[in-house]
Amino acid sequence: MKTSFRYSSNAEVSGITLDVLNISKQSSAPGIAENPLLKAVEDTHAPFHQAVLREPTTKVGKELTKRNRKRIKMANALRGLLRQITKFSNTTRSEPAEAILKEWDKLINPTSGNDYDEVSAYMSKLIALLKSESLQPHFTLLSLADAVTDVETAETDFQTLYMEQTRANAELRLQGSATQHRPAVEKALGNYLKFITVMRGQPGYDVLYSKLNEAIKTAKKASKKQTPEEEGTVE
Predict the structure, then answer these.
(1) Euclidean distance between CA atoms 99 and 96, whole angstroms
(2) What does 98-161 look like in DSSP terms, one character per residue?
(3) 64 and 167, same domain (yes or no)
(4) What mean pLDDT is reported for the chain?
(5) Do 82 and 146 lie in a common domain?
(6) 39 and 14 housed in the same domain
(7) Is-above-0.90 flag for pTM?
(8) In the 8-state DSSP scheme, what is residue 226?
(9) Which of 2, 29, 154, 170 has its CB 3.0 to 4.6 Å from that of 204, i.e. a possible disulfide?
(10) Domain enclosing residue 47, as ranges
(11) CB-based contacts of 196, cutoff 8 Å, min separation 6
């Protein structure tokens, strides 16, 4: 029975451990209910499982990535629109668009859309610029005040979720993260499964071994490594 969980996430390890505990507690193998190795698995899993529940989920991470891309996309869309307007040099709309871009171009673009803090610093300066008294008449003339609001809303949506994740991370540091608890769980689980492997020739343990082995193989097949996607870039 393979007991390495190198490529399994914390949530997957917690799920596997729960399966092992449930199967073992339902087993009729002699003495298994009082087995100290099983008790060690249960004791180490309890704080690990609670830490896993407190961890920012993959869903939150994906939503944060989505919101980061949206704020970048909204800023790029507004800038692109202004550039298009300046191409019509004989209209009254080209001059205010050029005035806005002249100030916008003074900002230093983030080197990477992956750096949330760097993008946030840029967006903070950009929104302050777009809402400045000197540029407001230009946006009004261009009927683009709503577009500025859209950029600001996208930034606010990102910051709201980012702060929630930051607070969750702070709580994890205080109470102990799942990653900190995981080694103890893996060690206890490994010791217990090795014991079951040694005992599989004994009455009652053969069935328990078979059920645990099947549960672990099924869980590992479900584990998939994911490659992070690239963020957008500020144009």
Answers:
(1) 5
(2) HHHHHHHTTSPPPS-TT-HHHHHHHHHHHHHHHTSTTTHHHHHHTT-HHHHHHHHHHHHHHHHH
(3) yes
(4) 88
(5) yes
(6) yes
(7) no
(8) -
(9) 29
(10) 10-55+195-222
(11) 1, 205, 208, 209, 212
Question: CA–CA separation, 135 vs 185, rounded Å?
Answer: 59
Residues 84 and 153 in one domain: yes
Question: Whole-angstrom Cα distance, residue 85 to residue 95?
Answer: 9
Domain membership flag for residue 3: no
Name the region of 143 (left: φ>0; alpha: ψ -120 to 50; beta: rest).
Answer: left
Least confident of 32-36, 161-165, 207-211, 222-226: 222-226
Q: How far apart are CA 220 and CA 25, in angstroms?
A: 22
Give me the half-sphere count of Cα atoms (radius 13 Å) on the Cβ side of residue 152. 11
Same domain, 106 and 149: yes
Q: Residues 203, 40: contact at Cβ < 8 Å?
A: no
CA dist 103 and 99 (Å) reads: 7
